[in-house]
Amino acid sequence: MSDMLSQEEIDALLNGSDDISTTTGDEQLLPGDDLGTMEVDALGEIGNISFGSSATTLSTLLNQKVEITTPKTAVVKRSSLYEEFPQPNVAIEVSYTEGFTGANLFVIKQSDAAIIADLMLGGDGSAPAEEFNEIHQSAVQEAMNQMMGAAATSMSTIFSKKVDISPPSIALMDLSEGTGTEKLPDDDQVVSVSFDLKIGDLIDSSIMQLLSTEFAKDMVDELLNPPAPAAEEPAPAASSTQPASSAQQSAPTAPAPVQQQPAPSQPAPNVQQAAFTTFDTPAAPPAEQPRNLDLLMDIPLKVSVELGRTKRTIKDILELSVGSVVELDKLAGEPVDIHVNDKLIAKGEVVVIEENFGVRVTDILSQTDRLKSIN
């Protein structure tokens, strides 16, 4: 392989230009008037700080150890993205509603997204569904929403201003078949920030963030050249004189001598001796007021009978259909709970009165237990 420079590189050197393409790994860092090496490094640092908190959030959601490595940032041609994503992928678009004007596009393999969806729906991720339907898309969408919410909070700290995002939109992207291309930035050159993503023993892959060069330039410019805080304008001095008339303004006059006016006399304060109540003899107790409970008798109260309770995962709830049986935490024949305004006061047994269900009170909680339930 020859180490000689190409004619384009020789012309660039002769013209004193730094626009020489360099290669880092599998990504091509293209010449650009907007972003240089310092700007690209700044973008990588923003992504490193932002997605550090996102990894913690995703770990809590999935109950798995999540590792996101230091990002690799590059400016690539839009056409080269077709080679980057040969397999079906999932594209999640997140727009900023406050702090910045722009959007991020996150691309992840469909197989990895299926594992994340299975974990979000209560599975263990070992056997994700082959069909990536709307339920799985919604699960991945919610995971990305939580991740980007944490990233926006970190960006608020970095840029010292409020940063907020809109709910993400998700779509399947298969560039080999031409689907999902509308999610890609329209620029000929885009900024890619690639992360290595590890989730327990289930995923060892990568996730890529794509954004337009204009949006990337705005973020870098604000990071490297933060706006100066606005100076507060001094308040105008209060004038103690009334505005002069037009005739007085046209002809200046000598100031009138100031005459001191005698201070108005103030009335003498009325000073009296303080009188204190003696406590030698206890005061007589107030007369006992009659207790009128009739005023409370017409107040309506909600009475409900609880047959039992149970807990189910989101996966179990989504699998419910007509004819499904939900097992409760009470045994057959066990007394049911009687609540008044959602407070337990008694227990009873279910009976049938003609064509309606009813409940026969078998036990009433003691006054102490009822007071505890109220608290």
Topology:
Layout (H helix, E strand, L loop, with lengths): L6 H8 L7 E3 L2 E3 L7 H26 L3 E3 L3 E6 L3 H4 L4 E10 L4 E7 H11 L13 H26 L4 E2 L3 E5 L15 E11 L3 E10 H12 L21 H5 L52 E4 L7 H5 L17 E5 L2 E11 L2 E9 L2 H8 L1
Antiparallel strand pairs: 1-2, 3-9, 4-9, 5-6, 5-7, 5-8, 6-10, 9-10, 11-12, 12-13, 13-14
Helix pairs in contact: 2-5, 2-6, 4-5
In short:
The chain has 375 residues and is of the alpha+beta class. The chain contains nine helices and 14 strands. Strands 3, 4, 5, 6, 7, 8, 9 and 10 form an eight-stranded antiparallel β-sheet that branches. A four-stranded antiparallel β-sheet has the order 11-12-13-14. A two-stranded antiparallel ribbon has the order 1-2.
Tell me about this structure:
The protein is of the alpha+beta class and 375 residues long. Helix content is 28%, strand content 24%. The chain has helices at residues 7-14, 37-62, 81-84, 110-120, 134-159, 213-224, 246-250, 314-318, 367-374; strands at residues 22-24, 27-29, 66-68, 72-77, 89-98, 103-109, 164-165, 169-173, 189-199, 203-212, 303-306, 336-340, 343-353, 356-364. Strands 3, 4, 5, 6, 7, 8, 9 and 10 form an 8-stranded antiparallel β-sheet that branches. Strands 11-12-13-14 form a 4-stranded antiparallel β-sheet. Strands 1-2 form a two-stranded antiparallel ribbon. A hairpin with a 2-residue loop joins β13 (343-353) and β14 (356-364). α2 crosses α5 (134-159), α2 packs across α6 (213-224) and α4 (110-120) packs across α5 (134-159). The longest helix is centred in the first third of the chain and has 26 residues, at 37-62. The radius of gyration is 37 Å and the shape is flat. It starts with 6 loop residues before the first helix and ends with a helix. Residues 13-33 and 238-252 have low confidence and may be disordered.
